[in-house]
Amino acid sequence: MIIQDEDDLRKLKDPPVATPALRYPERAAGRRPFSPLPDYETSQALALNHLNNDSLINFYKPPPKRRFIDFRSWRAGITALGIYIILSIIVGIPLIVKKSQEDDKPPPYYTSVPWLGKTTTSHYVTNINNLSSSLLNGVSPVCNIWTTTGQLNDAQNSMVGQVLNTVSSNGRFSITSNASYMSSMNVVMGDLFVGINSDTSVTDTTILVNMQASNVDLFDETLVCFALSNDATGLAIYIPDNMSLNDQLLFNITLLYPQSPITAQVDSFATYLPLFTQTFGDFGDYVDFEKVSIEGPVSRIFVAFIEAGQILVETSLESIFGQFASSHSLFVSTIQAPININASLFNDPDSSFPTYLEVNTGSSNLTANVTLNAPNRSPPQRPNFIANMRTFYGQATASFAHDPTSPPAAIKLRLENDLGPVNVMIDQYFQGLFQASTKLGAVSVTQGTASSSDPFDATLGRSFSLDYISDTRTYGWIGWGPNPGGFLQEQIGEVVVETSIADCTLFFDG
Fold this sequence. Notes:
Keywords: Membrane, Transmembrane, Transmembrane helix. The chain crosses the membrane at residues 74-97. By secondary structure, the protein is mainly beta. It has a domain at 80-109 and 338-510. The chain has helices at 6-12, 40-58, 71-104, 216-221, and strands spanning 142-143, 148-151, 159-167, 171-177, 188-196, 205-213, 223-229, 232-238, 249-257, 264-272, 276-282, 287-295, 300-314, 320-333, 339-346, 355-360, 366-373, 385-391, 396-402, 411-417, 422-426, 432-437, 443-447, 462-469, 473-480, 493-499, 504-508.
C-alpha cells in the first residue's frame, strides 16, 4: 500500500469554486487532524453563549407585589398620630383655659382716646364751608347785619364793622371760619375771647364781633353770619377765595357769659378758627360744659380753666397752654410747638370705662402735670385712667399725683419721646408694673422716701422690686405687699416710658 504524504494530498484536492462552502477552521498547533473536539476559541464562544442564555433565565425575577400599606407606613402613621394628640393637648388645653379666663374678664381698654371718632363737625351749628346750611329747626343764617360801620382814615381806607348780639346761655355753641392757613397766612388774623362778664348787671350772654377789612370790596365780600335760636348759637365767618397778598382781614370776637345764679348748661362748645389766637377764661360755677372742642390750624390757644366731660384741643404750628378738668376724655395735640398743661382727671368707679388722656406734639417740649381722682371703694378691677403722651423732639416732662381726697387709682401710662429726654414723676400711691428704656442714653429708675399705706389693707408694706437693671433698660414692680408677678395685670397700674438717643428718668415719690 502506497501512503502519500500531505503535500501530495493537498495537490489532489478539488480546485476552489465560487459557491458558498463550509470551511473548517485551521488546525491549531498540536491538534490532531479531523478531531471531533472543537478548538479553544470555539469552545470559549460556546461557553460564553451558554452562560448568557442561562443568565436571561436564571437571574430575571418578577417585581414583588406592593402591599397597600406596609409595616413601616403603619409605624410612621401611628407615630404622627401620637405626636398630633400630644401637641393638641399641649396647645389646646392652655387655649381653652385662656379663653375661659377671657370670658370672665372685663372688656379690654384701648389706649387710644375715643373722641367721638373725631367727628367734631357734628357740634357746629353752621357749616364751615357751606353758607346754605341751616339749623335743624330751620333757622337760617343771617349775614352782615352790622350795628355800626365806618371807614378809617388810613392809607388803604380800611372799612370797619361791629355787631353785638344777645344769645341764649344754653344749648350748642359754635364759632367757625373757612380761612385756610395755606392761602390766608398773614392775610387773615383774629382774636377770640370766651369768658365771664365782669359786669354783674348784665344778665344775658352776649357775643360781640369787630371786623376790619383793608378795602370796601373785601369788606362787602366777607360774610359774618349768625344762626341763633333758643338752644343754639352759631357764628360763621366766610372768607372770599380771591384775596391777594395786599388784602388784610382782622377780627376780634368776644363771647361773655353772665354771672348768673343759674348755671348755664352748654351741651357742646366748638370752635374752628385757623390763624386766630383763642383765649378762654375761668368759668367757675357759671357754666357747665358737656363737650368742648377748640380747633384751628396755626391757632394759638390759652385756657385759664375749662371743665367738661370731653375736651378736645387741637392746633398746629402754635402752642397750647392751659388748665383742664375732664371726667371722660382729654385730647391735646399740636405739631412743632410746645404743650404745657395742667390736667385734673376724674373717673367714676361705677362707670364701665376709664378716663382717657392723650397729649401729642412734635419738634418741641411737652409738659403735663396730671392730678388723678377716682373714689374707689375697693381695689380697682380695671384701670381708672389710660394716658398716652408723645413727642418726637424736645423734652418730655410729666408728673402724676393723686388728689388728696382720692384713694390709690390704677393708671396705665405710656410716654414716648423719639429723640429728646424723658422725665416722669409718679407719686407714692401708684401701684403696678413699670419699665424705662432708651437706646443710646442712660436709664434711671429710683424711689423717694415719701410714705404711704394701702387704704384697703393697712397691714401691707410698700415694696419696690427691680426685676431687671441695665444701662438702657430697667423694669420691675412697685406697690403694697409682694409682687404678684404676671397675674392679675389687668387690675394694676402700668407705666412705660421710653426714648431713643437721650436719657430716660422715672422717679417714684415713695
